[in-house]
User: Fold this.
Amino acid sequence: MKTKISLLLMLFFSICSVAQQLEINGIVTSESDGMPLPGVNIIVQGTSRGTTTDFDGKYIININRGEQIEFSYVGFITQTVTVENQSVINIVLQDDIASLSEVVVIGYGTQKKADVTGAITTIKSEDIAKTPNSNVVQSLQGKVAGVQVVSNGSPGSSPTIRVRGVSSFRGGNNPLYVVDGMFYDEIDFLDSSQIETISVLKDASSISIFGQRGVNGVIIIETKNGKQEQKPVFTYNGFTGYQNAQNVVKMANAEQFTTMAYESGSQADIEFVENAIQRFGRSRINPNIPDVNTDWYKEILRVAPISSHSIGVAGGSEKTTYSVNASYFSQDGILDMKNEYERFNIQSNIQIDLSDRLTVGTNAIFSNATKYNPENGAWFQAYFAVPILPVFDETNMDATPIPYADASLLGYRSAQNPFPAMTFNNNQLKIRKVLTSMFLEYDLIPDKLKFKTSYSHDYSTISERNVRLPYFISGQSQRETSNIRRAENKYSNQIWDNTLTYTDDFGEHNLTVLAGSSYRDQQQNLFNATGNDIQGIGLESSWYLDFADPTTFSDQVNEIGDRFYSFAVFSRLEYSFKDRYLLNATIRHEGDGRFPEKLWVTTPSVGLGWVVSNENFMENSGLFNFLKLRASWGQLANGSLGGSTGTNTISTLVTSIGDTPTNGFLATSTFRNLIREILEETNFGISTRLFDNKLNLEVDYYIRDTKDLVLPRQVPIISQTVDDNIGEMRNQGLEVAANWSQNINDNWSFSVGGNITTLKNEITQIDSDQGYFDTGSAAFRQRLIVGEPVNAFFGWEVDGVYQNEAQVAADPTAQNELTAIQNQLVPGDFIYKDQNNDGVIDAEDRVVLGSYLPSFSYGGNLNVSYKNFDLSVAVSGQTGNKILNRKRGEVIFTNDTNIDAEYAINRWHGEGTSNSYPSSEGRRKAWNQRMSSFFVEDGSYFRVQNIQLAYTIPAKALGGENMPEVRLTCTAERPITIFSYNGFDPEVNDGVDRQTYPVPAVYTFGINIKI
Amino acid sequence: MKNLKQGTKQLALMLSFCVIVFSCNDKLEENDGQLAAGDVDYTISEDMNLPLIGAYSAVYSRGWEDPILIGVRGDDVNAGGLGDQQPLADTDLFIYDNNYWMYNQIWENFYGDIVRILSARETIQLYQNFATEEEYLDRADQYMAECKVLSGFTHFQMSRLWGDIFIIGSTDIALELENGVKTKAEVMQYISDLMDEAIPFLPNKRPNEREDVLGGVTKYTALAIKAMANLELENYQGVANATGEIIESNKFMLYPEFYELFKKPGELSNESLFELQFSDYNTEDGAANNHLFAPFGPSSWTPAVEGASAGWGFYEPSLKYIKFMIDRGDQTRLVTSVNFTPRGIDELMMDPQYASLPNYISNTTLDGDIFNDYPRAMFGSGKHYLPSNQLTAGRTSYGSSKNLIVIRYAEILLMHAEALTQGASSSAMTADAAVNMVRGRVGMPSLSGVTNDQVMDEKFAELAMEWGIRYFDMIRLNNYDELSYDGRTFTADKELLPYPQAQLDLLPLESDNN
Assistant:
């Protein structure tokens, strides 16, 4: 009652005192480095009026005499000033030693950072905005210990995120995104400029409240919002720039290729070269090679623009806050075809206090994107296309509409030229997402018991239109009639959450108890149809199924859908005593229709913390400003395994019986009936600040076991795998993040940070007769073995190349009847290591050749400020991972193709010429084509991730306080990458490089304006 | 206090929320978008043909590599595709590498089909369990018998390639594997017995007389497979009996035009006992069920119908075969079986004995398609060639809509003759009559008192390039000299393919198959 009266009184006074308002301005700086602090919250105490500081730490606020202003900022001690007659109030905020006030967002609530017992890393908006990318999570690359980001170069495609290694084989490894309290599997609808903070929840105890969707880590994103009593703030953020392919693989040129062909021992290949000479003429420099020298990568690549613009306004009145934002992003792909991404977003966020106890809010995003998918096969074809083939061939008179050259006209098996597919295919996707949510929050007992209900619906449609235009290049490369494939895919995901939160303190005991339920309904419907022979195919306006030959739809119309539900109840206890002893405990009970074998699963977790620095005996310790020891344990269930059918299912088919299409069906002979994998994780951590808070250090060590691991059991006899709960896997690692900030003088300051991550992934148990499971394809074997990392590359170890006949004759393994003799080994062939020394190279000599997961990764950043200039440099890298160079390996399927220059130059061509590459002839032999260490290469890299130079033009410089502040930035994203892998790009998602879209370097210029 | 009261009210409200939420729980049991095999209405007996069509679809949809790898080792044909697929060329030279992807692919293709066929048979059994009308009970018996024939055919191809294999008789694969690897003789006996089981339920018709499943297998297909299995067992009397029964039915006759037999006019002819069916349904676009014949096609040609696609130049008839045919004056069968390129003709003429060739040897086919030079091969396989003027208008892919004949009456006749010349007896037909019937169609003069050698020559001439018949005949007869041609040396240990490494890693197989 008392509070209510005082509130009323205050309201009364504030109304009465309108006439006495003053305008106050000032600048807020940080004590430690003297730098202005942007974004400091300024609130008039006892009211909801407030503002924030601008880029230069400046603010203006209207206030009544005698009122108190509170200045608060994450990581700093809050200061309160009573206004008397000042018109300028400059504030110096002190670092909050124990960071007691800093709050982190956790599931269904917030928690003081000091009370956190799990492993949570938070990234601020400044760091996110530096990365020019359509996807916000790309900005995490190299910044968060324990988080691996594998970039995707294709415009509009999401990077792969792995939090603490790979905990599931079959389930996805994508984390759960929680954006302003709502759950998403993907956040391609968010614009970077809208992000306030990103928090990464890494350990099971932090995640467990989210249940089975959070098994791969949870990334909580808070977007920017207005504040109560804040004048409208208009902002514009924009950048524009270009992308350029990096480290392009050098392919063998015409001369090197021709030499390889002559040395191959294959008469056919020599004839192909001669055909090329006949068709395209002789080179004047070297008459033995054709007068063509095509660098296919150069041909298919281009410099591509990228740009982003966003404009918005945010603010609030006494009882409401709002923000409205529109943003536009556009990016072309570096593949020279219709390959681009364009996104237009509108977003609004409104929150209203209906009474002092009841708050409602709503949030809506409409994201409208158009994406033109690349023909990824082009990366593969450009690697294989022979350099003695030009792009165009004017002598190919039959070709229409464009006289592309065609390798089959020289005798090669395939057309090879990637351009017909790039030119005559058009793959459009229209991705539209409507994400809406609303909530109602009611204080049942003010300041103690709160009820919140929220409902969200995320409705997405993806309209695909794949157009195939007719063309004729050669008998091998032609499309007689056009066709259009249309797909309409709709996804609907509804969540209804209800929570009750009780907060109280009893003396030195602080307590928060949460109980809640979550209900989810997820459905999808996939519809597609293909029609051929489109009338007026030359005009995009007729790219509709309506113009297709109606007789062609038969057997080309499909629809499939599914819908499932899940429901969970959960509870959490947060308890602290004397701000020293911390306990967090969570339990969740969850049901999911996709697991008919075991619908319900219960997962508990607990975390303990000890803030040592708050103990009396630490009071005079000069070293530690803050020290907390943390330990947590928790279980998570994995719900991302896809639906179990639980029974045999039917698939329909059509075959020709007497020239009549005849329907039939087949029942599966195998089916999935899975239970959820259970992930169990123990985490130990230390959080500390030292040297007058200059050094901030977080150390975590975790052991994460996945039980009932789902693995693809190969069903013997049929070439099928069936998923089954038949293994266990462990990930463990150490994560260290350190940051040092220092202020040198009034003009200069710097901060330097770094993080390292170790990862050891291993299969700890496999329930199989053989003691292993084979994965990958038979020709490129990967294997799951106890004690080895998941999907380890598995094959023979190359021990050199035979240099002369004597060496072949002297090697017992080369003379063995069973294996080597029938391969007729000669100099220039690989020597394989006889692992078991039994004199035979056979299956028993295969060993693990490495893993695609980096065992060590690191990131670092340096920020230097001088007056209005800021320079930041971020680096990242990884070691210990391998890449299967499948481009080289696919010689097993066609061997008359080009090869990279490295291979061509270093090939064995006589004694002493190479001990690592086979001869041109040997390249074609099965003996040298088997899965071996030759194809499995080191994937480590070091990268300069981002360099940004920024200059802030103070409003004053532009003519006064009412002028906008402007910030200019120049950014180079991934300008330099150093690696030894013989491919374009060491970032290969699953370690198998066949047609990975390379990740370009990006150079941009940006402007931010705030009024 | 008031607060608390209000609180209780609201708590009650919330509890009712929870009740609503919990009532959604039975939704967890729903499975949208999935048709469980158990949910099929097996009482609709007329639908029992659907799983049978599924079984045919499994057998018809063959990988391009299947017929090529099966046949490549014979002295009738070379790998072709020079410069490409070196391990296939090595296989042709009897150099085997069990890591080669093709071996594993074919293993998986055939075994996968066996399980699909068995799954179809078990589904038909379910229909039969629910059927009440006599007509449907019988029909289910017939359909299940058809599945046995298809399963027999796939087991037969597997065992020919690898000798000792697993026999799979039900979809409970783990149980089937427990029975272990069976020797080739056991597998062939199993196939023979399986055919005996099936025969009583199968239609007493030619495949092209069937109205329910046109071109589907019949009693005679089963007899043919039984004969082939017994031939592998060198049980020649068994061969004579089975082939004799087919002959005595008087249902089959040789298609008069040997050349057209392998083209569209010869599809599902009275000669056909088993044929893989493909079609583009005579539509210029739209869905088609085609086999990929491109590997058999020339990589360079000038088709009579412009725009028809060329092929990859694999599967090249051997010079040995061509010379053998020229020596015999076997014109019709030679020009049907072999497509010549100018380079191939030159190569032939380099041999002084063939310096002047009969004028029917030309790089222009009877339908006017001109085979140009291409480095991959010197000759193309005519039996896998569909003239460009037989392509459906609008279709350009090589061999679109062409069927692939598996067993034909000529092979039955020649197996019959072979059995008789190996000492078996039969009242159905004499060896002379059988051989002369085959020769008669292609205008070859009659023989009398044919010897086993002559029968084998006749098989060579008639059945070259078809399903490895020649190779498997030669290894059965241990006639390694014939296989040691053009610089090759064949030895007994080369008869079988090694088990694919991927299968050795997966199955309880002996590591060395030879």
